[in-house]
Amino acid sequence: MTPKEKASNLIKKYDCGGLITFAGHSTKKISIQCALIATDEIIESIKECADKDIINIHLIYWRKVKNELLKQQNNG
After folding, report:
1. At what angle do helices 52-74 and 27-47 cross, to 10 degrees?
2. Per residue in 1-58, pLDDT tens?
3. Cα torsion at 73, 20, 35, 33 (round to 10°)?
4. CA gap 22, 30 in Å, rounded
5. Predicted pLDDT of residue 33
6. What is the pTM assigned to this prediction?
7. Measuring CA to CA, which of 24, 26, 47, 68 is 20 to 30 A from 53?
8. 59 Cβ neighbours under 8 A, 6+ residues apart
9. What pLDDT, on a 0 to 100 scale, did the predictor assign at position 21?
C-alpha cells in the first residue's frame, strides 16, 4: 500500500459514521487528527526497535504517510 493509500485508509477508519459536523468541526478534519495521532504513535514505537535497517525502512514509510495526512489536512 502506498503512503497516500494508507493515509486515506486511516482517515476512513476514523470516520465518525457520516456526521457532517461534530462540535463545530468537520468529521474529515477530526478523522485526519486521529490518524495523525496514530501515525505519531507508530513512528515513536518504531524508534524503539533494535534493528536499525528495520527502523529506517518503517520510519521512511510512516513519515510519508504522515506527510500525506498533513497534505489532506491543509487542503481542508
Report:
1. 160
2. 999 999 999 999 888 666 666 666 678 888 899 999 999 999 999 888 877 777 888 9
3. 60
4. 8
5. 92
6. 0.78
7. 68
8. 43, 46, 47
9. 63
Contact 55, 46 (CB under 8 A): yes
Query: Which grid cell sits at 74?
Result: 491543509
Cα distances from 2 to residues 23, 37, 54, 66, in angstroms, run: 32, 19, 18, 12
Q: What cell does 3 get?
A: 503512503
Cα–Cα distance, 44 to 39 (Å, whole number): 9
Backbone angles phi, psi at 22, to 5 degrees: -145, 115
Question: What is the chain written as a DSSP string?
Answer: --HHHHHHHHHHHT--TT-SEETTEEHHHHHHHHHHHHHHHHHHHHHT-S-HHHHHHHHHHHHHHHHHHHHHHHT-
Q: What gap in Å lies between CA 43 and CA 64, rounded to an integer?
A: 11
